[in-house]
Description:
Blueprint: H1 2-27, E1 46-49, E2 55-58, H2 62-89, H3 93-96, H4 101-110, H5 112-124, H6 129-147, H7 152-157, H8 166-179, H9 183-197, H10 199-204, H11 219-239, E3 245-253, E4 264-271, E5 280-286, E6 289-295, E7 304-306, E8 311-312, E9 323-326, E10 336-339, E11 342-345, E12 347-353, E13 361-367, H12 379-384, E14 389-392
Parallel strand pairs: 2-5
Antiparallel strand pairs: 1-2, 3-4, 5-6, 6-7, 7-8, 9-14, 10-11, 12-13
Amino acid sequence: MFKKILLGLATLMIILAIGIFFFLKAQSPKYSGKLQIPNSVQDSVIVIYDNYGIPHISAQNETDAYFALGYTHAQERLFQMDLIRRLAKGELAEILGPKLVSTDKMMRTLSIQQMAARSAKEFQSEKGAMQDAAQAYLNGVNSFIEKDRLPIEFTILGYSPTKFTLEDSYCSLGFMALGFTMTMKEEPLMELIYQQLGDKYLEDLGIDSSSIYKGFSNKSTHEESLMAIMQELDKVEQNIPLPLWEGSNSWAIAGSRSKSGKSLLANDTHIKYGQPSVWYEAHLEYPQGGIYGYFLAGVPFPIMGHNKHLGWGLTIFPVDNMDMYSETQNPDNENQYLVIDKWEDYEYRKEVIKVKDKENIIYDLRITRHGPVLNDAYENIAKHSEQPVSLWW
Length: 393
């Protein structure tokens, strides 16, 4: 009897293992065979994967090549693409739960989605080959979402991705831009050093203390606020489920100094290791030209790459592209702040954060002429500071 039970369990386990194998195989990217996708491309497109898994796309026209790029990119990186756009928009808690609420609040406060929407609108205001290629790429991504099996991550988390738009592509670029700035940490840190230790410590760092505002109405309260800002930012950064940019470098050599007589460009983007990799390497060829490069998730054009005429790369230029402002609150009207010598009304933007298996979180984000008010996103800052702190970016 015991042997029969053991045999039955073993058989069941084998059947289950076979079932899981074929289930995972069905959801894995397809690297061979033919695909018939209605209303997709004008002519046939050939995609060959080399020994490193890099797709080499050969098409009869540019838009077909970019459609195939979008499709191949989505079948290998769709979850990564969705995760990055959700991070930039502040929508992670919807799929990952309440632990990501503080991260969502930070990203919504940064207003990357609003900046992405403006950039997408400006890009689409013109018509040309780049606009056609970008839309073809997005059509390829969305065709995969509609026609093929979604990666297993979506099954595990129990949701389906929405179609991708050009705004989503700019959201990915916005997340990259965020990794290029350290100012959100440096501004409150430098100010805190000045408040507690004075000018000399800043001079040792090569910083002109005249740029530090010295007129805070409540010094101790403001110092607590600065500490709260840095603590919140550090906590949020630790919760981001994606690697952040940490720097980069590039260098070029003139043709007169190279053995081949051709100019050389080397580009190195410093970034934490991640799986999957931040970059998606691909090669496109079509009669009008061709391109080889490294693509960000959801972005139709390579950030680093080359064609038959030139090469390009990406490196950080350490500019001061963020500022924090201590606003003066109207003591008689909580809806107003001081602008030069008069009170002006805050602009309000209602934010609704969907949280997995929880009630939605709804709050109003105040916006000044400088930018959004950080206090509204972080309870620690609001608790420690009666002075609103706004962010210009």
